[in-house]
Amino acid sequence: MRGLLLVIVGLCGLLAIDQIATEGRYRRAVWSEAKAQGNTIQDRVEYWVNGIIRF
Question: What is the pTM for the complete model shown?
Answer without folding.
Answer: 0.51
